[in-house]
Specification:
With 196 residues, the protein is an alpha+beta fold. The protein contains four helices and seven strands; from the N terminus they run H-E-E-E-H-E-E-E-E-H-H.
């Protein structure tokens, strides 16, 4: 086994093998080890297919991993069938797992996809409704802000209460910014001259 790893320079997957110690199928990754450019051996680690199936189950009951297109590596259910219903599959082929690529994906009933599509449609409609309300509100706020005068507002002085003193310290720079904005932008726009 070490001799096979000698010609490789990076980690690689061996595929599925039976572990007599665990009494179950595992998938193994092997990493060749070099010291000063000299091959000294290989390290390997395996993961039981049962643990991989439990991990896959965390992504939902329809998640799966195939070896090639016909070997199930992990599936969250591994029981039951497709009950004659129409199913849709979304998957990606990952070629890093040798000797055969793995297909990792998800399957769903077409009837479930219709429900999700309706939820997506409602979310889009709500988003468009928010935009439809936001645009007129923006113009109204802009209209009233354009007629607002900041000249009568005075800065706040220091206060003995720490919280009020901190609030005044935050308010005063904001007021200075608004006064600057009014002087250079709003009045310029009202006069018909561009700012700057």
């Amino acid at each position: 086994m070490d001799e096979a790893a000698r010609g490789l320079r990076r980690a690689h997957w061996l595929g599925l093998v039976w572990s007599p110690v665990l009494e179950q199928t595992v998938t193994v990754i092997r990493q060749p080890v070099f010291v000063n450019g000299i091959f000294v051996g290989a390290l390997g680690a395996g993961i039981a297919i049962s643990k991989l199936s439990r991990f896959v189950a965390g992504f939902g009951s329809e998640t799966f991993i195939l070896r090639g297109t016909d070997g199930v590596v992990a599936h969250s259910a591994l029981v039951g069938g497709f009950d004659g219903e129409v199913w849709r599959f979304v998957y990606r082929t990952v070629r890093a797992y040798k000797p055969e690529p793995w297909v990792i994906g998800n399957h769903s009933r077409q009837s479930d996809l219709g429900r999700e599509f309706r939820r997506l449609t409602w979310a889009g409609a709500v988003g468009l409704g928010v935009v439809a309300l936001d645009v007129p509100a923006t113009f109204l706020i802009g209209h009233f802000t354009g007629n607002f005068e900041f000249d009568g507002i005075k800065t706040l002085g220091p206060c003995r209460l720490r919280e009020l003193d901190e609030a005044a310290g935050a308010f005063n720079p904001i007021l200075r910014g608004l006064l600057w904005f009014e002087t250079y932008v709003l009045r310029g726009l009202q006069a018909g001259t561009p700012p700057g």
